[in-house]
Structures are given as C-alpha cells and as structure tokens.
C-alpha cells in the first residue's frame, strides 16, 4: 500500500487566500464600461482636425450602429433620424450630440456626431484624444 500524499500546509493557506480575494473582487468589481445595451471602446489612432477627432470602424466593431445613426442629410432635416448613441470619456458622459462637424472642430468640449461607421467627437477639455490618456466609449443606452 502506498502512503497517501499530503498537500503542504502553505498550499492550503494559498487556496484560502485565493478564494477570499476572488470573492471580494467579484463583489467589488466595477466595469470600466458605462452601462448600456452595447458599449465599445473607440480605438486609437484618431484622425484629428482642430478639436474634432474621427474614429472609424475598421473591423465592423460598431458598423451595426448604422441602424441608429444620424441620417447623412443631417439631424435637422424633417424626418431625419437622430442617433441615440452616447459618448463617454473615462466614465463621464459627453455631449451634446448631433452637432455639426464645424461646431465640433471649432468649439469642442465633448460635442460629437455619429454617422454610419464613424464617430466624430471632441475631448471634454480640448486636448488631443490620441495622447491625453483617456478612454472613449460609445454606448447604446438601455
């Protein structure tokens, strides 16, 4: 008969600490994504023109948002569709949305516009979103 293998005591202690830490992290975890039906991080690099930054969908990651985008004729044309998309900068809701490109480029401060496969936006403080270290998310609210 072979003697039964004994686990080292330190391994049991590690297991107890791991379970306790995993339980605590599971209860205290806060997702970096804002709440909503759909949320995606806008991927750098952005094409910057004045204060306007352009994020294009290259892999279809938010092309399906075409169904909720602002019509190419503009949001002020009678019967035109207005996007419900929300834009967040590190968890802070930006806006207003549905702005013109010129307004975003010249005035910034979180203004944005959403067309099919394209989000044009500005940072909250006029800084370059490629280098300011902040994350930008598009969200479809619930």
Number of helices: 2
Provide the residue-averaged pLDDT. Answer: 78
What is the radius of gyration? 23 Å
State the distance separating the first and last CA atoms: 63 Å
**Principal-axis shape:** elongated
Please give the order of strands in the largest beta sheet: 1-8-4-5
Percent range for β-strand residues = 15-25%
Q: Which structural category do the helix and sheet elements fall into? A: alpha+beta
Number of separate structural domains: 1
> What profile does the largest beta sheet have?
4 strands, antiparallel
Low-confidence residue ranges: 71-80
| Count of individual beta strands | 8
The succession of helices and strands, N to C, reads HEEEEEHEEE
Helix content class = 10-25%
Overview of this protein structure:
This protein has about 140 residues and is α+β, with helices and mostly antiparallel strands. The chain has one domain (about 40-140). Helix content is about 20%, strand content about 20%. The chain contains two helices and eight strands. The chain has helices at about 10-30, 100-105; strands at about 40, 45-50, 50-55, 85-90, 90-95, 110-115, 120, 135-140. The strands form two sheets. Strands 1-8-4-5 form a four-stranded antiparallel beta sheet, with no helix packed on it. A four-stranded antiparallel beta sheet has the order 2-3-7-6. A hairpin with a 2-residue loop joins strand 4 and strand 5 (about 90-95). The longest helix has 20 residues, at about 10-30. It is elongated. The N and C termini lie far apart (about 65 Å).
